[in-house]
TrEMBL record:
Pfam families xref list: Nitroreductase (PF00881), TM1586_NiRdase (PF14512)
Lineage, broadest ranks: Bacteria, Bacteria division TA06
Transmembrane segments: none
InterPro entries, per the entry: Nitroreductase (IPR029479), Nitroreductase-like (IPR000415), TM1586_NiRdase (IPR029478)
Organism encoding this protein: candidate division TA06 bacterium DG_78
Protein name according to UniProt: Nitroreductase
Amino acid sequence: MEFYEVIKERKSVRKYKPDPIPDDVLNRILEAGRIAPSAKNIQPWHFVVIQNPEIKEMVAEACRGQRFMAEAPVIICGCALEDIAWGRMGGYMSSFAVDLAIAMEHMILAATNEGLGTCWVGAFVEKDVKKILKIPDNVRVVALTPVGYPAEVPRDRGRKLLKDIVSYDKY
C-alpha cells in the first residue's frame, strides 16, 4: 500500500476475525516497532505479545472491560523503560511515553499495511495489566493494541480541517 493510503486507511477496529496472523507478518509488524526512533536512540521499550486466549481475556478485563480486544489473535502491550529513557525532553519531562508512542504507531501503521486492524487502547488499569503480564515494577505500561483481521469496516469518524489545527510562524 502507498504510504499516505496506509495513513488514511488506519482506523480503530473493534471487531476481529479469529484468523491467525502468520509469523512473518507479525515479525514485520514487530520489526517496525523495533526500528522506530527514540530520544537519544535509547529505545526504552519492551513489547509483550499476547496470544494465549486466557491471558487475552484477563488483559481485556484490565482494559476496563473492552472485551473486543480478546477477539483479536494478538494483543501487543507497549511497555516503557522509564529508568533508562532520556529525562530532559523539552527541559521538563522524560521521553518514555513519547518514545513508546512512536514505536506503537510504527507497528499500528505496519499492521494496516499488512491488511490488519488495530485499536490504540489507553484505557486500562496499569497495576492490573502489570500483574497479569508479570511486568516489573519499574516498567510502565503506556498503551496496548489488539491486532487482527477486521471483521467489519469501521465507520469514518472524521477529522478536523487542517486550517483548524495548524498555524504558521506563530500560534
